[in-house]
Design goal:
This is UPK3B protein. It comes from Elachura formosa (spotted wren-babbler). Keywords: Membrane, Transmembrane, Transmembrane helix. InterPro entries: Uroplakin-3. By secondary structure, this protein is α+β, with helices and mostly antiparallel strands. The protein has a domain of about 140 residues. About 15% of the residues lie in helices and about 20% in strands. The strands form three sheets. The protein has a five-stranded mixed beta sheet with strand order 1-7-6-3-4. The chain has a two-stranded antiparallel sheet with strand order 2-5. Strand 6 and strand 7 form a beta hairpin. The radius of gyration is 36 Å and the shape is elongated. The chain starts with 5 loop residues before the first strand and ends in a 32-residue tail after the last strand.
Length: about 250
């Protein structure tokens, strides 16, 4: 008979990091189990994640070999499966590893040709429980405790969404109108002041004739830029025909 696996005190849990989409309608982000299996794992061992509906976790039995691993496609019938097979060395204290593991993130698992084991989207809000299992060549070697129940978000039914925008109160409408009027008056005042300043800089009044004399303003003609010759070593084609300016 295979040697019973070692029970470790570690309890998997959703990452405490502030993340967008930490828990969605079909996925959740677990904290990576770094340093959990140090002292129990060999170089050839792998760590798996067992995922089960919360009310079916007691029925889960550790597989005796990789060939006995329950697959993702069995979730709705067996109520559990295993996924995220990872070399145990990736979770050691000395190895750099991602801070989270996304459970349910592989949408390609729905394709019929996708090879299991797979990390497919979770089909319902759950709740789910998970545990990590260290597997060696001769079966399970160590395992964590089951997590607390993890409940996913529920999708919002389109029938519950009000298509009509929320009506604003009359007081808010009055305040908005007053602010808009003040903005228009301020813009007109600023534009008038700028126009008077420009006119004063271009024109002055002749005191003898009481007439305004204005300076003319002409734009300067800027000739088009001539093509610059390529620096030595640039380009691989024949020299170009010289550019002549008439």
């Amino acid at each position: 008979l295979p040697t019973p696996s070692v029970r470790l005190p570690y309890v998997p849990h959703v990452s405490p990091m502030a993340l967008l989409g930490k828990v969605t309608v079909s996925t959740f982000a677990l904290e990576t189990p770094r340093c959990v299996f140090d002292g129990h794992a060999d170089a050839s061992d792998a760590v798996w994640l067992a995922v089960a509906f919360a009310n079916a976790s007691t029925a889960f039995r550790n597989p005796l070999s990789r060939a006995d691993v329950p697959l993702y496609k069995m979730l709705l019938t067996a109520r559990f499966y295993m996924t995220l097979e990872t070399a145990a060395a990736a979770y050691s204290c000395s190895a750099p590893s991602a801070p989270i593991l996304r459970v349910g993130g592989d949408t390609a698992c729905r394709d019929l040709g996708k090879q299991d084991p797979c990390n497919g989207p979770l089909p319902s809000p759950g709740p789910y429980r998970v545990k990590f299992l260290l597997m060696g060549c001769h079966g399970p070697k160590a395992e964590t405790r089951w997590s607390e129940p993890i409940l996913l978000r529920r999708a919002i039914s389109p029938s519950t969404i009000d298509p009509a925008p929320t009506r604003r109160g009359s007081a808010l409408v009055v305040i908005t109108s007053i602010l808009a009027s003040l903005g228009a008056v301020l813009a007109t005042t600023v534009l008038g002041a700028l126009g008077a300043k420009v006119w004063g800089s271009l024109c002055h009044q002749d005191l003898g004739t009481n007439a305004f004399i204005c300076r003319s303003y002409q734009t300067h003609h800027i000739p088009p830029a001539l093509p610059q010759p390529l620096p030595p070593g640039c380009g691989c084609g024949p020299p170009e025909t010289p550019f002549h300016v008439r």
